[in-house]
Amino acid sequence: MKAERLFTILNILLNRRKISAPMLARHCNVSVRTIYRDIDTLSLAGIPVYATTGRDGGIELMEGFAIDRQLLETGEVQRILSSLEGLQNAISDKKSAGIIAKLQHLLSQSQQKGIPVPPNHVFIDFSPPFKERGCIDSIEKSIRDLTTLTIVYYDSMNRNTERIIEPLALVYHWSAWYLYSFCHLRNDFRIFRLSRISSVSPCAVPRKSPCIDLSKKPWEKEWEQDKFEEVIIQTAAYNKLRFCELFSWARITECGNDTIEIRVSMPINEWSLSVFMGIPGRWTVISPEKLKKMVKNRAQEIFSQNHDIKCQG
């Protein structure tokens, strides 16, 4: 809320020469004392804002101050705006909508003043699949209201459990949305992939989780726990583009005879298995042995299940 208010105050001061503290207080719906504290915060941040007393007194910016022209000309504001618009596609946030409107107004005013503002050419979309959108709305409300939720969750082995959780943060990582929360079932913090949550409902159980500093991104520790191993895959050259969609070109080597080799470092688990099992065409795991066995076992399971269905038919 304070960051939003500081941006509002700065935007007002940029668009008018002087304004009284009581008028700012009414506009921001806070006390005059809070406005003066905000002015001190802006000053400490390097914004040349000051207050004068008397009949013609008020709060104003030092004459000549403006948003850095280079910031507008290089398109940095447009990048910020594009990121916020992409985020708004995923999360319905009134504060973000307000900031987007102000940045759009800033760009429009800059163009009117003759500052060349290049059109944006970077567009970002964090929109989740349709089935996850309602889940995100429920999670956002729970985080704001400090309530708990009951979810049905499927793990990587397709086992489902019903859990009471305390949502703490939504995380976009590896092209997917995750939820970091305190899980009552495990009595510990856990991260859940949203696509594996089949249902979400409000819960009357009170929160009991200990305080945690989210700015340190504690969920990253869970991803770092997996041991990374070198994986070597060989496949036909026609599969090259498919592997390039997953890994960098530098990881792929031409071996001759229309064959390529892929060397990557990754954890050997259900996630990595699902990555490779989703690649069409023929390919061979050279190493490690653990991944070889996982692929073989999964292929046998699929064959066995389909063979049983065929026999029954």
CATH architecture of the largest domain: Roll
CATH topology of the largest domain, by name, is SH3 type barrels
Residues in helix, %: 40-55%
Order of strands, widest sheet = 6-5-4-3-7
End-to-end C-alpha gap: 63 Å
What quaternary form is this? single chain
Radius of gyration: 27 Å
Task: Identify the CATH class of the largest domain.
Answer: Mainly Beta
Q: What count of helical segments does DSSP give?
A: 11
What's the count of strands? 11
Q: Judging from the principal axes of the Cα atoms, what is the shape?
A: elongated
Structural class, judged by helices and strands? alpha+beta
Order of helices and strands: HHHEEHHHHEEEEEHEHEEHEH
Question: Mean pLDDT, rounded to whole units?
Answer: 81
Unreliable parts: none
Strand content: 15-25%
Give a quick account of the main beta sheet: strands, pairing sense, barrel closure. 5 strands, antiparallel
Number of domains: 4
Describe this structure in words.
It is a single chain. This protein is an alpha+beta fold and 313 residues long. The protein has four domains: 2-61, Orthogonal Bundle (Arc Repressor Mutant, subunit A), CATH 1.10.10.10; 69-112, no CATH class; 130-224, SH3 type barrels, CATH 2.30.30; 228-312, no CATH class. Helix content is 42%, strand content 25%. The chain contains eleven helices and eleven strands. It has helices spanning 2-15, 21-28, 32-44, 69-73, 76-88, 94-112, 130-145, 220-224, 240-244, 270-277, 289-312, and strands spanning 49-52, 58-61, 148-154, 160-173, 176-183, 188-193, 197-203, 228-236, 252-256, 259-267, 283-287. The strands form three sheets. A five-stranded antiparallel β-sheet has the order 6-5-4-3-7. Strands 9-10-8-11 form a four-stranded antiparallel β-sheet. A hairpin with a 5-residue loop joins strand 3 (148-154) and strand 4 (160-173).
